[in-house]
UniProtKB/TrEMBL annotation:
Residues 209-222 have a biased composition (Basic and acidic residues). The lineage of its organism: Eukaryota, Fungi, Dikarya, Ascomycota, Pezizomycotina. It comes from the Eukaryota. SUPFAM superfamilies: NAP-like. Residues 115-138, 172-222 are annotated as: Disordered. This is (Perigord truffle) hypothetical protein. PANTHER family: TESTIS-SPECIFIC Y-ENCODED PROTEIN (PTHR11875). It comes from Tuber melanosporum (strain Mel28).
C-alpha cells in the first residue's frame, strides 16, 4: 500500500508496525448497490480483530448515464488492546494547584493521524448544518474517503503483486503519458488541418497563375 501515493499519505510510522500483520485484502459486492473491503490480519499485539471491513454504499437510484452515486460508508469497530490504539496519542500536561503550589501531570488521549482512521469514515453532511466552512471540509474528506475505497477496489486488489513490487507505478505513469499524448494528438490534428488549409490556399494561388496545370499522376495497382 505504501507504493500507492494517496494511501501512503495516510500511513504513519506507527501504522507500519501493525500493517506488517496484514495478510490479505479482499472485496465483495453487496446485494444492494455497493461493495465491502475486507482486510485480514494475523494475530498481533495491536488489536483482536481477525478481519476489519469497510462497506461503501451507493444510492439506490443511478445517476445520469447509469452511473452509481456514492451515498455513505461504514467501517468496523477496531478492538484495540490496552495502550495500542494507533488512532490516538497521549498528551501530558502539568497542572499547578493554586493553593498548595504543588504540580501534577495530567494525561489525556487526543485523536491523531492514522491509516486506521480509514475504518471510521466521515459522516455525510447533515441538512441542519449551516456552517459552510465545515461543509466544504467535510465534502473534501468524503470525496477523499470515497476515492481511496475505489482505488483499493479497482487498482490495488486486482494488481496487488504489482503494487507490492512497485511495478504498478510504471503502468500508472504510462497511462498518464498516454493521456497526455492523446491531448497532444488533438493539437497536432488541428495543426495538420491548418497546414492542409494553407496548402489548399497555396494550390488555389498557383491555379490562378500563368503556369499550366499538371495532370495528377495515375496510381496503378499491380
Amino acid at each position: 500500500m505504501k507504493n500507492h501515493y494517496p494511501l501512503a499519505e495516510t500511513i504513519t510510522d506507527r501504522d507500519e508496525a501493525a500493517l506488517k500483520f496484514l495478510t490479505d485484502i479482499r472485496m465483495t459486492y453487496l446485494d444492494r448497490p455497493g461493495f465491502k473491503l475486507i482486510f485480514e490480519f494475523a494475530e498481533n499485539e495491536f488489536f483482536t480483530n481477525k478481519e476489519i471491513t469497510k462497506t461503501y454504499y451507493y444510492q439506490e437510484e443511478s445517476g445520469y448515464g447509469g452511473d452509481f452515486i456514492y451515498d455513505h460508508a461504514e467501517g468496523d469497530k477496531i478492538n484495540w488492546k490496552d495502550g495500542k490504539d494507533l488512532t490516538v496519542r497521549v498528551e501530558s500536561k502539568k497542572q499547578r494547584n493554586k493553593n498548595t503550589k504543588q504540580t501534577r501531570v495530567v494525561k489525556r488521549t487526543v485523536p491523531t493521524e492514522s491509516f486506521f482512521n480509514f475504518f471510521n469514515p466521515p459522516k455525510p453532511i447533515s441538512s441542519d448544518d449551516d456552517e459552510e466552512d465545515n461543509d466544504e471540509e467535510l465534502e473534501e474528506r468524503l470525496e477523499l474517503d470515497y476515492h481511496l475505497g475505489e482505488d483499493i477496489k479497482e487498482k490495488l486488489i486486482p494488481r496487488a503483486v504489482d503494487w507490492y513490487t512497485g511495478e504498478a507505478l510504471q503502468f500508472e505513469e504510462l497511462e498518464d503519458e498516454v493521456e497526455g499524448e492523446d491531448f497532444d494528438d488533438d493539437d497536432d490534428d488541428d495543426l495538420s488541418e491548418d497546414r492542409d488549409d494553407d496548402d489548399d490556399d497555396e494550390s488555389e494561388d498557383e491555379d490562378d497563375g500563368t503556369k499550366p496545370k499538371q495532370e495528377a499522376a495515375e496510381c496503378k495497382q499491380s
